[in-house]
Amino acid sequence: MSNALKVLVIEDEPKIIEILQTYMEREGYQVSVLSDGADAVEVIKQTEPEFIILDLMLPNKDGFTICKEVRQFSTVPIIMLTARVDEIDRLMGLEFGADDYVCKPFSPREVVARMRTIMRRMEASLHKEEELAYQGVTLNVDRFQCQVGGQLVELTPVEFRLLQTLLARPGVVHSRELLMKVCYVDERVVSTRTIDSHVKNLRSKLSNAMHGKDLLHSIYGVGYKLE
């Protein structure tokens, strides 16, 4: 069985596809290609790539929309490709959930270098004691501890996984569906109201520890974010 990194390139320009696929395969990656945005999300769900190279401008569904939809169920690393200078400020904010961006024209070496940087960062986090921190809230994943202002806050396992997911991407909205998938690793069937209840309890514990400050925000019809 191959241990090659599974990369999905979603791009509609044949020349760019050829350049990226040839270079990446030479570097030892297992590359799949998709040239239309319409079925991208479904293909990602079915094939579960380990890295995605996603063009901003695609037929039938743009890269922004695809990225936002993917972030509802997956944290797979995503690099966006763009030729639109007017979108660079938005891309730099990466508020839609991408990990990095590359402007066209580019060399395939640059794209692979960015990929390796992201992968090294992910691998490094696996080999050290994982700790997430934001606005005075600190989560030590290995010790299963939550501290607010240096004081321990007792959380249930579901609340802990919920906070861990939100802390990993502050400011990013997480759908209820993704939170259910993350919080219930045994894949039991629960309703969105169950997640709402856990969020309510978590918000109360954090707010009490922070003397009324509220970091957990609900986005109507979408989900929750920490900000």
Low-confidence regions: none
Q: What string gives the helices and strands in order?
A: EHEHEHEHEHEEEEHEHHEE
Overall structural domain count: 2
Count of DSSP helices? Answer: 8
Helix content: 40-55%
Largest sheet: number of strands, sense, barrel closure: 5 strands, parallel
- Architecture of the largest domain, according to CATH? 3-Layer(aba) Sandwich
Distance between the termini: 43 Å
Could you name the CATH homologous superfamily of the largest domain?
Response regulator
Oligomer: single chain
- Name the beta content range: 15-25%
Outline, from the CA principal axes? elongated
Strand numbers in spatial order across the main sheet: 2-1-3-4-5
Gyration radius over CA: 19 Å
The CATH topology of the largest domain corresponds to: Rossmann fold
Average pLDDT reading: 85
Class from helix and strand fractions: alpha/beta
Structure summary, number of beta strands: 12
Question: CATH class of the largest domain, please?
Answer: Alpha Beta
Topology:
Blueprint: E1 6-10, H1 14-26, E2 30-34, H2 40-47, E3 51-55, H3 63-70, E4 78-82, H4 88-93, E5 100-103, H5 108-126, E6 131-134, E7 137-140, E8 145-148, E9 151-152, H6 157-168, E10 174-175, H7 176-183, H8 192-209, E11 216-219, E12 223-226
Parallel strand pairs: 1-2, 1-3, 3-4, 4-5
Antiparallel strand pairs: 6-7, 7-8, 8-9, 10-12, 11-12
Helix pairs in contact: 1-5, 6-8
